[in-house]
Amino acid sequence: MNAPTTLRFVSGNRRVREDRRFVVGRGHYVADVTLEGTLHVAIVASQHPAARIVSIDASAALAMPGVHYVVTGNELAAATEPLMNGLDTPEVRRFPLAVGFVRYAGEWVAAVAADSRALAEDAAEKVRVVYESLPFVIDPEEALRPDSTPVHPRHGSNVLLDKTFVWGDVDKHFAESPNHLSFRVTWGRNSTVPIETFGVVASWDPWREILDVWASIQMPKYPEQIARAMRLPANNVRVNQDVDVGGAYGVKRGIKHTVLVAHLARRLGRPVRFIEDRLENMRSGDAHGPERIFDVDLAFNEAGIIKSMKMRALDNAGGYAGRAPFQLGKPIGAIVGPYKIESVKYTAQSVTTNKAAQEAVKGFGQSPTNYAIETAIDKVAEATGLDRIEVRRRNFIRKDEFPYLIPSGTRYDSGDYHTVVEKVLAQVDYPALVAERDRLRAAGLLAGIGIASCLEPSGGNSAFEPLLNEKNKTTTWMDSCRINVDGAGCVSIAIHTLSSGQGHETLVATVVGEVLQIEPDLIRVVRPDSLACLPSNAPVGSRMAIMLGGAAFHAAEKLKAKLIKIAAQQFGVDAATASYSNGGVADADGKRRLEWAELVNIAHRNHHLLPSGMEPGLETTHVMQVPTGTKLPENGRVQMYPCHSFEFHVVLIAIDPVLGKPEIRRYVIGHDCGTIINPHIVKGMTLGGIAHGLGAALLEEFVYDEQGQMIAQSFMDYLLPSSHEMPQVEIVHHCTPSPHTVFGQKGAGESGYMGAPAAISGAINDAVHALGISFVKLPIRISAISDAIASAPHPTLKENNT
User: Fold this and answer.
1) 0.90 cut: is pTM over it?
2) Which residues pair with 411 in a beta bridge?
3) Beta strands of 234-320 (E only): which ranges?
4) Band of the pLDDT at 86, cuts 50, 70, 90?
5) Residue 671's Cα: distance from chain center in Å?
6) Rounded to the nearest 5 degrees, what angle is found at the Cα of 572, between the Cα atoms of 570 and 578?
7) Do 201 and 271 form a contact (C-beta atoms < 8 A)?
8) Helix (H) or strand (E) holding 67
9) Model pLDDT for residues 203-260, shown as the tens digit of each residue
10) Strand 237-239 to strand 210-215: parallel, antiparallel, or no bridges (unpaired)?
């Protein structure tokens, strides 16, 4: 089935239909779910990074009026299954509440259920827990050592993953290359910190034996994981998906929250609600992202052509495994970025420490890897004396080389990197930008230009899971859509996942409107509960434009084909000779035509006029598998994501040498995500991603002290970018359609974030290069900049700014 060659609604300047309810305050969030008799939960958290739980005394809390129950880890562990780990680590067991031992400061030890959140919090303060402190480890390199303090003694070490891949003849390429360089960079632990914390409401009906759940969730297979943990048949769990999500960006994976309230709801026979406060969210909400050390070695020649790369990535997963190690797996699908690096040795290491557990975060490990790759390109430019943009041009995959097979087994679908670069350089007037940087330097400021070229793999599948865990044989990563036309001719679309702010309703209405050539605003989009759903794997991995958009397209094509068959039956002609346009069907010469209302009437009311064997009514479904995602890994190589969007960032930063405060003076991004279905959604994703990347580069970090305590527990210490830091961003679009998708679309859900940290870091290092200093760890905080400047030998600069 081919997409229309002339697009009426796709790529049009159309409003985002979800925005209408949000801007007037009519969104429906989990905190808006109010059930009669609801109890509220507050958490008792550990103050210790590592300790044995000696005893828990909840008698004083239970004596308080309005307090109904206090649950501990031992009770919960007896009633539920351990939460799932992605890797084969059976001795790294995890329950929503600590069982016997705590493994990070802030870990949940007990939970109080009371008539109100305030009562529950007061009662939580009266729960007395006696601990026996134990040794702890928070540094990943220390945790990697065989003699390190074990976080999970029964596991045998702190190592969750230690896997080395060699793709191509790395040793030969290093031996033949005249130039080598090595460096280390570090990505600080941060997150996306959505404005809405995680929340969940659960209600158990013992007479129907059904668990109802409402949650602010972004998680594949959420109902199944609830059922597994609660020891329930999957059809006894109903996730109500008519809930808006106030931001997710990967971190809304609140399975432990859900199992906790589900157990309490079943135990107490009352609805139970848990809405995290900001402290709970930040220190123990399973919302931390990667904390990663990269050691990189490069082999290259005098022309700046990189032949081979060795990369070691050591990730601090925190107290439990979860999905964290897999964030070392996704980057394998774009391990060379947009460059023709012929061979790679990649070592992926993940260790447990006594920090909060790391979970999925926007990009799933790709943005940190892009930061390391782009730092490498800048260092090659410095070593060869070449311009940074020229080094990128020389190493880029050319447009005529697509589809392009990279060493790790993924075949890039399409791209035109050189053209995107030229468009951005024209937009920014690069010679004038360099002149402006030099003018700022002459005026006594430190100024630098940052460059980043990177990929956004999209259309997410699970190929990294069997690659890192051979016991996992999953190759299916589908999404689906159902279309129904009622007897009055009105179109409704059912999609089978929660909203995470990515405009899914706009997406499917636009796609179906395009195929059926009817006004998208007339189409109703609904989200049935999980028991009425077709399969979905959730809005992760920049996949919904590709997967949900593709499923909607194919379902609409099936509907259109049915309408053509109905009309052809009336015309007495072969269906292949009839044609559909503007909601009606005509015969080959255009003399006979049936309009939408007539076709609908036949389908719903005139069974005698239907083709033989055709079911009455107008309903179609389509379940779509990820394009190219059909095989298990072979010999450490795998086809990862099917589509690859491209970004090229140019940023100018000026730094006051006295204060050390960076100011972004210009920001231009070139973006190629294939055919854009809705420009406003893509723009919003890109701007939000750049803001997130700015935070990762300059501000945001979950800092721990030497006692294992997280000291960034509020927005006073965990700094977010505001409108003061966020620059005016210029977006330059280019379209290289993907051959794997119905309209040529690629993903854009992680755009901006993929390259912003690398570009901003590059600009700062360009600014301070003349002082003989550099920054090799993100975030680059103001204090780090000012201290480094103060320590650098540059008396002239100091005098000019006194």
Assistant:
1) yes
2) 405
3) 237-239, 272-275, 292-300, 306-318
4) confident
5) 18
6) 80
7) yes
8) strand 67-72
9) 999 999 999 999 999 888 999 999 999 999 999 999 999 999 998 888 888 999 999 9
10) parallel
